[in-house]
Amino acid sequence: MELRQLEYFVAVVENGSFTSAAKSLYVSQSTLSKAVKKLEDELGVPLFIHRQNMTTPTDAGALLYEKGRLLLMEALRTRELVSGEVPGKGNIRVGTSCKRGFQLQVSNLMAKFVQTYPGVFLDLNDASPEYIKDELMRHNLDAGIIVEPMNSSLPTFDTRVLSRGDYRVALPANHPLAGRASLRYADLAHERWIQYRPTFRLAQMVQAGCEAAGFTPKVVLTSSQTEFILSLVNLGYGISIQAWPKEEQADDRTVRVWENVVFLPLEDIQSQYAVKLITVKDSYLSPATRTFLDFASAHTF
């Protein structure tokens, strides 16, 4: 059994198909299939069950996956120790989901880290929170920075809070409610809502808040992109709820770029939001990644 065969096998399990695994590893599907077939021949047992578009591990495959991940992590740890990797050197893959309002603070954090540790290469991937979580579980990312409700549960991740803020209602500047000092869910019962996709924690929280106020929000459009949602509010298409940074950290560009949008406090929001730095529980973290986690924790904003 070779480590490369094991790496290919683990990738198929975590991606759910040979096609997706091959893409994640940047190898041809035929190369991947041959390596897994050779592994099955060596072990004398089938490792996968193929049903339509689904590829799932057999009982033997599930056992090999559990042990194989540990072997691969130990091999990586050994390689780093032997090669003399130190905390101030290496590569780190970080997924970020930080739009306007806290984008500047996250950018400053990254810049300070690179200046402090010039031997570390940061590979940043801007994506949705759900995509970042998936990529972390597939071990295609080392860490993620996402925005979620403060009290949201992330049982499969270790979490460090980098910043906190509240939620505000984003609505067109010419809206009849735009002159109010603050709003409640009950004030928004008849509005057109532009929501995040249902899998997002914020969308679930807003849905629950509206129902607690006695109505179901009229959602006219869903998206995973903050910029797109705010552009529609800017055009007067509807309202939305967005994370808002601490007042002393608010970036003036956040207000100016959406000149036709006002952001009003929502009094009965269920929780504050948090900018969270997450890693997979019980996963191996390289010295460079651990250095980044410690640095970020010491430079909260």
Helix-strand blueprint:
Elements: H1 3-15, H2 18-25, H3 29-43, E1 48-51, E2 54-57, H4 59-83, E3 90-96, H5 103-116, E4 120-126, H6 129-137, E5 143-149, E6 157-172, E7 192-196, H7 201-212, E8 218-223, H8 226-234, E9 240-244, H9 252-257, E10 261-265, E11 273-280, H10 287-298
Parallel strand pairs: 3-4, 3-5, 7-8
Antiparallel strand pairs: 1-2, 5-11, 6-9, 6-10, 6-11
Could you characterize what this model shows?
The protein has three domains: 81 residues, Orthogonal Bundle (Arc Repressor Mutant, subunit A); 94 residues, Periplasmic binding protein-like II (D-Maltodextrin-Binding Protein, domain 2, 3-Layer(aba) Sandwich); 109 residues, D-Maltodextrin-Binding Protein, domain 2 (3-Layer(aba) Sandwich), CATH 3.40.190. It has 301 residues and is α/β, with parallel strands linked by helices. Helix 7 links the parallel strand 7 and strand 8. The chain has ten helices and eleven strands. About 3% of the residues have low confidence. The strands form three sheets. Strands 3, 4, 5, 6, 9, 10 and 11 form a seven-stranded mixed beta sheet that branches. A two-stranded antiparallel ribbon has the order 1-2. Strands 7-8 form a two-stranded parallel ribbon.
